[in-house]
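Hi X.,

You mentioned you wanted examples for the new student's onboarding notes, showing what a folding record looks like when two proteins sit in one file. Here is a clean example. The first protein comes first, with its sequence line followed by its C-alpha cells.
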Amino acid sequence: MPAQHFTVLTFLAFLFIATGCSNNSPQTSSDAGSMSEDNQTRVTLTGTWQVEDIDHGGIIDNSMLTMELVTKNRISGFTGCNQFSGILNVKASELGEGEFSTSKLVTTRRACLTAMSAQEQRFIKALESASRYEIKNNTWLVIYDNSGQQRIKLIKMSAQQTVENEKNDAATTGTHAFNCATAGSVVVRFLGPETIKLSENGNIHILQRARSASGARYIGMNTEFWNKGSSAILSLKNQSYTCSK
C-alpha cells in the first residue's frame, strides 16, 4: 500500500475514534449542578403540611392539625384547637433531610375539649423535641427527636386533597369563592361547624369562629375573615380587603 494512502487511512481512523469518545463523554459539572438544583426544589420544606400521626399514636379524626412553613425561620399552624407559631431553625440538604428544631412556641388561648387539649399538648411537646427531618417520596415529612425516634408524620396538603378517601366532616361540602380586591380570589371551605380553611394566593389558613355582633367572624394567625351574606372582609397581615361573591 502506498505510504500516502496509509497516512490518509490512519488519519480517518483517529478521527473516528475521537468522535466516538466525545459523544460518550461524562456529564459536565454544569449538568450535575442543574440536577442537584432540580432535586433540591423537588424536596423543599416550603408549604402547608397536615399532621397524620404523633408518636405512632395517630390523631383524632377530622382534627385538622397543620404546620405551615411559608416564612423563613418561622413556623405556624393549627393544633386542632388553637393557632400556634414560633421560631424555626432548619439546615437542609439536597437529599431531602437535615436539621430541624423549634423554639419559643406559643398558642392562642381558646378553650378545647379534653381530648383535643391533650392532643394539642402531645403535638407541641413533639415539636419542641424535634431535632431532624426527612422527606419521603416527596410527600411525607417525618420529624425525629435527638434519639432518632419518630415524633410527627405529616403529608403535603396538596397531595392530601387529591386522596379519594379523604376523611372529612359532613360540613366540608360548603365551599364559597370571594373576590377580595387586590388580594385576588379567595376560597373558603368549611371543615366543621366552627372551622374554615381559607385559600389565597397559594397559601392555606385554618381559621376558628369567634364571637361577632353580626355575621360570622373567623380568626387565625395574622388572618381574619368576616362574612355576612355575599359580602366579606379579609384581614391579612394587618391589611384589610373588601370581598364579594
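Then the second protein repeats the pattern, sequence line and then C-alpha cells:
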Amino acid sequence: MTVFQATTAAGETPPADAVAPRDSTADAPTSVARLNATIRDFVARWNTVWVEGEITSWNVRAGNVFARLKDVQSDAQISLRIWSSVRGRIPADLGVGDHVVAAVKADYFVKSGDFSFAVSTMKHVGLGDQLERLEKLRIQLRREGLFDAARKKRLPFLPHVIGLITGERSDAEKDVHRNAELRWPQVRFRTEYAAVQGDRCVPETLAALARLDADPEVDVIVIARGGGDPQTLLGFSDERLVRAVAAASTPVVSAIGHENDHPLLDDVADLRASTPTDAAKRIVPDVGEQRALIGQLRSRAMSRLTQRLSHDIAQLEQLRSRPVLRSPDHIVDARTQELWLLQSRGRDTLNRRLDEAHRRTGELRASLRALSPAATLARGYAIAHLDGGVILRDAADAPAGTALTITVDRGSVAAHSDGEVSEAD
C-alpha cells in the first residue's frame, strides 16, 4: 500500500504533492525525501492530544529533554521531545518514575525519519507505581539498617579471586576483565553468567550469588551491568536480591552503571561503582602505582636514614670538638692546681685554729691554776675539815676535843681542837 492509499483510507484528504500510486513504480521509484515530506505533512495535521503514562527515560541534552513515556497498564511506549522553550513552563522536578499527563503533538523529522511527540505542557499525576513501591521498600530497608555504612564489609587490598556476575558475552564482562588485568595482570576471575534483565534476572542472579559466596577462594563479588533504562534495571531493586546481598559473607560490589536513578542494590552493596570499569579500578590495585609507591617509600626511608646518620655524625663531631673531649688532661690539670690551693688553704686554716686553741687552753689552764685551792695550799695554807668533809670556817664550830682533818699541800693530818679561839688580824 502506498502512502497515498493509507492516508485516503483514514478519511483524510492527501496533500497536493503527496506521493500517489502513479508516482512510484519499480522503474521510477519516489525519493526518500518526498516520502518523508508526505508523512510529515500528514502527521502535521494531527491535533494535540492529552496522554497519561509513566516516565521511563529522561535525558537532558543542550537544554532539551528526550524522554520516553510508558503506558501505565501495558508495555506500550512513545518517545517525547521537550524543547528548551517549553521546559521552563513545566515542573522542574520531573524525572524517571513520575506518573504524568502531557499535551503532545505528533512530530516527524524528514531528515532522520524519526517519529516522536513534541510536548507543549506536562504535569504530575503522582508517583509511578513502580517508583512508589521502590521508595517504600527503600524506606523500609533503611529503617532496618541495611544501608548503614557500619554493616558494610571492607574490600581486600588485593583479591586473589574475583567473583563476577554479569550477562554472557556482555560489554560489562569485557570491561571488568580488561581494566582489572591492565592494573594487575595476575588477577583471576570466577564468572557466573545470569540474565541482567527480565523475569530470569532475579533468580539467576540469586543462584550465582549463592555459588560465589559459598566458594572460599572468592574474595569479592562484582555484580555488573552496562547501565540501561530504569525499566530494565528493576530486577536489581528486587527485595529478594537486595536482602541476599546484605546477608552475603563475601564483600559485594554493585556496578550496574546507571547514575540518574540507581537501583536498591547500589545502596545495600558494600561498594557502589559507577560503571563496570570503575569497579575494576576500585577493587584491584594498579601494579604500576604500587611499584611507584614502594619506590617512593624506599626513597623516603633511605633519605630519612641518611639524614639521621648525617645528623648523628655532626653531633658526634660537635661533641668531639669541645675542649673537654679534645684535651681531657686540661680539666684534670686545672682541677689539680685548684685542689692543691684548697689543700694548702685548709692546712693553713687548721694550723691557725690549732694555735689559737693551744693559746686559749694555756690561758684557761693558768686561770684555773690561779683559782685552784691547790695553788693556795702550795703557798703554805691549810684547810681544816670537820667530820663528814665539812670545811671549818668558824673557830666557834670546833669546841675543845673536836676531831679535825688538816689538809696541806702534800697530804692531810689529824688534829683535835683545844677550844681556844684567837681573833684573826
